[in-house]
Amino acid sequence: MSPQQRRSGLGTNQEAVRRHNLGTLLRHVHGAGQISRAELTSLMGLNRSTIAGLVAELESLGISERTTPVGGPRQGAGRPSAGVRIAAEGPFVIAVDLGVDRAVVARVGLGGRVLERAQAPVHSDGEAWQVGAAVAALIRRVVEGAPPTAPLVGIGISVPGLVRRSDGLIRLAPNLEWHDVSFGGIVLAALGLDVPVSLANDADLGALAEHIRGAAVGVDDLIYVSGNVGVGAGVITGGVRLEGAGGYAGEVGHLRFNPQGRPCHCGNRGCWETEVGAHAIAEAIHCPPDKVAQLDEVLDGYTKPPPELRATGAALGHGLASIVNTFNPRLIVLGGYFRSLYPLVRAEVNSALADRALPAPLESVTLVLPGLESDSALLGAAEIALEPLFVDPVAALGSALVDVGSRLAV
Amino acid sequence: MSPQQRRSGLGTNQEAVRRHNLGTLLRHVHGAGQISRAELTSLMGLNRSTIAGLVAELESLGISERTTPVGGPRQGAGRPSAGVRIAAEGPFVIAVDLGVDRAVVARVGLGGRVLERAQAPVHSDGEAWQVGAAVAALIRRVVEGAPPTAPLVGIGISVPGLVRRSDGLIRLAPNLEWHDVSFGGIVLAALGLDVPVSLANDADLGALAEHIRGAAVGVDDLIYVSGNVGVGAGVITGGVRLEGAGGYAGEVGHLRFNPQGRPCHCGNRGCWETEVGAHAIAEAIHCPPDKVAQLDEVLDGYTKPPPELRATGAALGHGLASIVNTFNPRLIVLGGYFRSLYPLVRAEVNSALADRALPAPLESVTLVLPGLESDSALLGAAEIALEPLFVDPVAALGSALVDVGSRLAV
DNA sequence: TCGTCCCCGTCCTCTCGCACAACAAATTCT
DNA sequence: AGAATTTGTTGTGCGAGAGGACGGGGACGA
Predict the structure, then answer these.
(1) First vs last Cα of chain A: how many Å apart?
(2) Chain centroid to CA A307: how far?
(3) Which nt has its C1' nearest the CA of A47?
(4) Is residue B149 classed exposed, middle or buried when 0-12, 13-18 and 19+ CB atoms within 10 A define those classes?
(5) Residue of A346, A97, A87 whose CA lies nearest to A203
(6) Cβ separation of A9 and B28 shorter than 8 Å?
(7) For residue range A227-270, what is the model confidence (pLDDT) as tens digits?
(8) Cβ–Cβ of A9/B27 closer than 8 Å?
(9) Cα A29 → chain centroid
């Protein structure tokens, strides 16, 4: 629900400087988990004394705490630098990964630590309010153990579908058969709370999480291609998420692939999804249709690549070539059931990609599996809920909720 | 040659605040051409006195000058606000639009005013150094009339091909038959000057120019699709250029379109370019191959749409649908010979697009023709050359060259 | 025509944030 | 053990934007 702030042609206020520096410092601590003040000075290019002031403010806000100088491998002489780490009873968020057959909910602290998690199956033909109630129950369970002083900053929800950026409305979630569902509002109503809720597409959040603490740390141009019944992609370019005008960017599953191909649920024929989507793969390996949602487990069952998947691998590579030509990423992360598929058909994918992509963008691209395994979208949901803290820590804490456990216990 | 600066996790220095505010103010003056100080205060959200100080600095740098209160349509009472406009003898850049059959060179001042221009045909089989010499001659001619006190900030070059972002190397320009050409260095050597040179792809620059002062002013998510023998796209998303890891993003001409289609020069079969590229269109309308470079003029000759172009229009629309699904732009600007083609097959393009794009991204997208006609790439080249001024006006002027006319007259 | 109102530019002072320098502390190297 | 090195801490200074007071300039109404 929080519209991403866009830096327009505004001038920089000196109050904004403090906000920005405090937020950036927190972002670094969040990214590293534990970091020395000396590293912070060199990373941020500010003076020692300035960093000291910022760190002191973070501590007085209860966000971070001071640690003894880290005993790690040091280089050279000099006084060891005191560390900064996320406070144990610091702010946290609720992350929700809504899948086609199950929902995972976690309480996540700064630093990306999953403090508690719970999950439950959801019926793919369930109505939105039923799913919302189930998610709310999971949230209650997960919040129970939270320290009473720890503030809840917000809720982030990963959705397998098209989410409107301006207000988080789920425009279309094909595999849940939802149209124009205000799922954030439904969950909040079921909880009886009023906290910031952010929703986004699962592939977008996968990309975000892999960028911050997964396989794409330090890579500013990456694509997370998610096989999750449907096929979608999350794009990060220049270090920022590609969202598009409405927030629907990255729907690569409906790239034109084979005009003589099979009909797609979107109404066209031969979309890429009809060749590398879960249903196509299930059909190729003669997997019963009711197990499509667990396609990753089925694929994990193979010890050696079945020949029926060769064509799928080639189609995957050919589609990725279009993506490489279009986005010129440095890294492509293969998430969802592609995590299980890619190791089986690595050779076919790579050669098909090399065959069809332009040489210039091809030479710098690498295909990898997610560094966060199947938690990418969940941790990405945590990230968008945490985002306000990095924009303005003081304001975000001001609107956060304390003692959520007792509030929900009613 | 100037690597685009990326804002990393740096802290904000208070010196950086001044730089940023001065640059942002200049960006506003540049965008509007003439603007009142009162508008600047509300646009930038800064105090009146702060704006006054920034404007005074800009004037002392010789960049802007004060104008009498604008006599335009005013609203309400109150003292009229003094205007700020670009100084007549202020800094300028050289913009070069390298086409497949001609080069256009212009002297462009801040505010995007084309102060002088010249052009000459280039042979498509010419060697890079020959083209460089021709461009250098045009630059000399264009610089002649510049006031001796006006500083030259840099040179921007639009290239019909893949340009490496890190150093401006032309990796591939298929229609010039260039591979790995350091054209910036060649032009500088021919001129005997040393000024910052920036190169970029023509479609990227078209998007940039249309965003700043063309049909896409105020639109932060747009795509400029350029038909220029080959087909490419420049993407602006969230208000910033999509470049990709190497700078090659946007090569939509080689999206997979029809796997049973014609062979493409890239080595594949059925790329989108083989259906909507200049050669395909020329063949469809029985245009002689030697006039392919002037395809826009040929198309302009039609008073009513020839039926042979219907299929091309549909292919254009179908390809655009993939682009809409992938990028979710608010605006698609059809440049190059698409400027002449689109009016002929508007109905076919629109219906094909509506047929194949997903409803959510489709509902907010609009197709338009360039607001800058055929000067988009040229003015975009000016923009990237001017860019350093908006990052740090003082530093950019410090490294600018004065009295270029006499330096080149040798 | 005059007075009033409204808005803007200018000047001055204030506040706030970061830089800088000096000193103390903690560790490594010789 | 002493020198060298790096960092934390403290106090001072500088610079940039904010804010208020004042004057100027035009629109509007009586």
Answers:
(1) 25
(2) 33
(3) C19
(4) exposed
(5) A97
(6) yes
(7) 999 999 999 999 999 999 999 999 999 999 999 999 999 999 99
(8) yes
(9) 19
